[in-house]
Specification:
50% strand, mainly beta, 126 residues
Length: 126
């Protein structure tokens, strides 16, 4: 098991940037595929971005391509999401997700088996 703690959320104006972080409490972080999901009020949770356990492969939802960048630091056991050119529709609670020895498709397509953080609120004003 891994404990995940997100940080870096906040209130930003449209067009602004935020960098989310997710700290993982596990010695085996390097074997976890990681992802970010988000959930807006009244909507279902949706996939945002994922990165493979070595960091060599990434996958993005179409609505964030070119604006968001996912990265990881296996030494610091941390996951990041750099969000640029934020839009009001990006407003949501952003969750960090992890799964040991998993592929990106399994993390994205079968999220109920992921381990989750508590989330961090991102609010983008017009």
């Amino acid at each position: 098991q891994v404990q995940l703690v997100e940080s870096g959320g906040g209130l930003v104006q449209a067009g602004g940037s935020l960098r989310l972080s997710c700290a993982a409490s596990t010695l085996g972080f390097g074997s976890y595929a990681m992802a970010w999901f988000r959930q807006a009020p009244g909507k279902e949770r949706e996939f945002v971005a994922a990165v493979s356990w070595k960091g060599g492969a990434t996958r993005y939802a179409d609505f964030v391509k070119g604006r968001f960048t996912i990265s990881r630091d296996n030494v610091r056991a941390a996951l990041y999401l750099q969000m640029n050119n934020l839009k009001p529709k990006d407003t949501a609670v952003y969750f960090c997700a992890a799964r040991d020895r998993a592929t990106i498709p399994s993390v994205v397509d079968d999220p109920d088996l992921n381990e989750w953080g508590q989330g961090t609120q991102v609010t983008v004003s017009a």
